[in-house]
Amino acid sequence: MTAWEKSRARAAPWFLLPALALLAVFVVWPMVRAAAWSFTSADLLAPERAHWLGAANYSELLTDARFRRAFGNTALFALMVVPVQTVVAFFLALWVNRPEPAWRWLRAVFFIPVIVSTPVLAVLWTLLYQPAQGEQMGLINAMVQAIGVPPQAWLRDPHLALPAIAFMSVWQGVGLQMMVFLAGLQAVPGELLEAARIDGAGAWGRVRHVIIPSVRNTIVFVVTVTTVLAFRIFVQPYLMTRGGPGRSTLSLIQSIYETTFLGQDLGRACAASFLFLIWVAFLTLLQRWIAGEERG
Amino acid sequence: MRQGAARMWWRCAQFPLLALALVFVLTGASSRAARTLRIWGHQGQEGENHAMREIVVAFNRAHAAEGVSVEISFFPDFQYTEKIAIAAAAHDLPDAFEVDAPLIARYVDAGLLAPLDRWFGPADQTDFLPTLTEQAKIAGKLYSVAAYDSALVLYYDRAMLAAAGVAPPPADGWTWEEFLAACAKVRAAGVEPVALHMNESADEWFTYAFTPVVWSGGGKLIADDGLRVRGVLASAANIRSLTLWQTLFTRGFAATDPVDPNPFGHGKAAMDWSGHWMAQLHLEAKGAQLGAAPLPHVGAQPVAPCGSWCWSMSAHTKDPELAATWLRWVTSTQHGIVPLVRANGAVPARKSAFGEFPKYQRPPYALFRRQLETFARPRPQTPFYATLTQHFAAALRDIARGADVGGRLRMAENEIQKEIDRRSAHGSREAAR
Amino acid sequence: MKAPSSNVQAPGFARNRALGRAAVKWLVSVAVALVFLAPLLWMVRASFTEEPRIFLPGFGGWFDGWTVGNYADAWRRAGLGRGLANSALQVAIIAGAGLIVNAMAAYAFARFVFRGRDVLFAGVVILIVLPIEVLAVPLFFTARDLGLTGGFGAAMAGLSVPFVAKAFNIYFLRQHFLSLPMELEEAAAIDGAGVWRQFWTLALPAVKPALATVVLLDVLTHWGDFLWPLMISTRAETRTVQLSLANLFTQPPLQWGDILACAVLATLPVMLLFRFFQRHIVATEARAGIK
């Protein structure tokens, strides 16, 4: 370390202090507190009355019907959204990946839902899914009727509500993943494509043998990021169906929210939060691992 | 360089400054009364909501000279409990707020409510319906007051019963044996005997509507200390009572998954297990053919449920006098009860208020009053009411679909007791012993 | 993938065919774009429609029943002025204060050599994966204990202060500081500029695009915040715009026209932002891969 560096280093604490202090107070400290609460019976309205429970909150959550249903719903939601959104985003990216600047408008079109806030879209799609009432119906029912399918009560049917929300989520997020793929496509070597073309490979052959292998890492990234985002779903079912009909759209986050504020069971809610955190961390590590595997 | 820095500062600062300016421009410097009381109410139906707004306006007009006013916010029923919990946890409860009657015990246990005896003395307490004071009194102190209460009865269509050869129920209602026999005759006549509204999505409907079956058989949902269900919920008496109730479904007298929300009003069912909120509609549909009786009872005496929205004061209000002034206003006959009861059709909370409502001389309203004054019972006072009602409702849903009554009640008993033991210090001591 | 239509050397017949194919592609794209944007187009159209006509299917009555009454109603009933102003204040504090705080930390991690730097930085990086949903409940208690709940000032602080320092922004800005040449500060040091001046007048302006990125990201993220305001805002005067919308959406009587007008007004600011920073926003969101 040179003398100059040393003199500069003296300033380091002052530069770091504001951010680190805020992170410590608003991220680390709440986590520590939540960890402590998760082993107790802490009550939302009187956290100080807690007594020690050991791992009971965790072990009981794993067998709790409501929590398992919420996890199942959310996993099902992810299973619906992730493959569809990834595939659609990939092909949209191929479609809009044109050098002429005139095509930029199309990319912008697909990106617009990404920047509209989720509560607005949740409210809007509730209206779009409006069931038929005499002549009146939402846009989706008008559209499906035009292609000969009878109108449905999308959000009020326990079998349709979750797929309906998933469909909306794909529409909302596909533009973002399309952009990620677009960035990935820039890395596809032109010579390889040219060589494939000369070898007589058709469009599909080039996609399969050249493009997909070269954007493998992007695919892994998109799949894991979309999965984590799908598991964080809350606003759409909370506003559109309140988790119903029945519990058919109850999400993991909503179940934690309800455990906190309706059950007022802070200890249990903190334990559920930590299980959720472990799951998210696992997904993130999985992505690192798959991506790393490929690189090595 | 310096100039660059200044420009940069300005750029960073201008957005927040603009936003702050915007806040003041858009919100205006609202001139506030010297003393403002924050209150919360549930949303209710449009008419009821309108009546509540009018009551607030009238209060503010009457108290303008003293420089005091109230500010009301409404939240829909499905959000109300969560909003109260958030505000309580944030230490930002409104000064006075509505509380759903069975949750009073929980809020008192958590120290959220202030006792009201100072402002509502014996004269008031004897004027309120006995069910209201019973529900709101904990350890001898009164924690809430109300403008109205609820009633649940067995409506019936005289003509439909007569066509099936069934005599109308007596003034104290049928026993369950008589009720089931009547149902069998109606069913034989090709009509659905009774609507039980089993498609109701709120858990609370099940506890509210069907606990009287348990009570009338001499049973309870939870011990009087509010902390023990083991050996109470799945008692032999309760198994017997709810087996009678289950018969309604096993013999096809009531639908487990009704599609029509009002089969009685539409002439498809002969009887309706329903509340005061249907009285007006049913009267309009049936006229003189409408009859109402107390719910069928397992034992000798009928039992009815009760309880509705009440008003409480926050334990942390800075202005208890003003909060009490509001509570007195909204529960007074003239300013609160008359407009609210006109709007929502509930039962007036004060005996002295019935004079304002001539229809309480006639059926079915006369029955509402009679049962609230004599044989109605509030839901159990326990800090774990939310847990209790959730599991009890789930058990009833399963029993209606044919689950073994004893086994299902024991299962609910275990679930509820486990939850109470885990969450209450008392329970953990019990478990450790 | 290279677009085949870029092959403009083709003569005569082939060239016509290429043009035809381009036209088809263009038409397909326009059609797909219209279907894709139909929900948002419908939102805008319906927000100007009289209540009884909103759910009439088909486009027969496209020009009937226009009204701006929904906007007036929504503004009044939802208290939108308040909501918009509160949201603006919230994102302004987060983005403004966050810019300075995070850039300072990022600069220290990038440019200073001190003991424990790498460990500390690794600790910050770990926090990136933490979703707010996990923290919301315990964070709520921290906010309460610090007095960040309740009246207007407290709730505004509660809505913004916890999100000023952001691990991702520190990480992101550090990358950009790292790519600056060290000579920048060395030259300034010879001129007698202190560390703060080197940071403030040299390094910070040099990473302006990155700063714009984090600001846009903060604004877009927190403009759409829902779960946190739902918990923090306990009074009508502290509602954010999304809460005003949700409030209108859950409180009878439901007036769909008002709700849609409210949704349009809540979207307008981000749309304007998008209009002016389109390329930047797209790059930003794609890089962060969040939302």
Written description of the protein model:
The complex is a heterotrimer of chains A (296), B (433) and C (291). Chain A is mainly α. In chain A, 72% of the residues lie in helices and 0% in strands. The longest helix of chain A has 32 residues, at 65-96. With 433 residues, chain B is α/β, with parallel strands linked by helices. Chain B is built from 17 helices and 14 strands. In chain B, the strands form five sheets. Chain B has a four-stranded mixed sheet with strand order 2-1-3-12. Chain B has a four-stranded mixed sheet with strand order 8-9-7-10. In chain B, strands 4-5 form a two-stranded antiparallel sheet. Chain B is globular and about 75 Å long. The termini of chain B are far apart. The relative contact order of chain B is 0.16. Chain C has helices spanning 12-47, 69-77, 80-111, 117-127, 132-145, 152-160, 167-178, 183-190, 195-206, 208-223, 227-232, 241-250, 256-288. In chain C, helix 4 packs across helix 7 (167-178). Chains A and C meet through helix 1, helix 2, helix 5, helix 6 and helix 7 of A and helix 1, helix 3, helix 4, helix 5 and helix 9 of C.
| Biggest chain contact | A-C, 101 and 90 residues
How would you classify the quaternary structure? heterotrimer
**Helical amount of chain C:** over 70%
Count, helices of chain C: 13
Mean pLDDT of chain C: 84
Please tell me how large the radius of gyration of chain B is: 25 Å
Shape descriptor of chain B reads globular
Mean pLDDT of chain B: 89
Sum up the overall morphology of chain C in one term: flat
- Terminal residue distance of chain B: 76 Å
Q: What proportion of the residues of chain B form beta strands (DSSP E)? A: 5-15%
Strand count, sense and barrel status of the largest sheet of chain B are:
4 strands, mixed
The percentage of residues in β strands of chain C lies in under 5%
> What's the count of strands of chain B?
14
Q: Order of strands side by side in the largest beta sheet of chain B?
A: 2-1-3-12
Continuous helix count of chain B: 17
Structural class of chain C: mainly alpha
Radius of gyration of chain C: 25 Å
Count of DSSP strands of chain C: 0
Structural class of chain B: alpha/beta
GO biological process, one term (chain C): transmembrane transport
Protein name (chain C): Carbohydrate ABC transporter permease
Keywords (chain C): Cell membrane, Membrane, Transmembrane, Transmembrane helix, Transport
InterPro entries (chain C): MetI-like (IPR000515), MetI-like_sf (IPR035906)
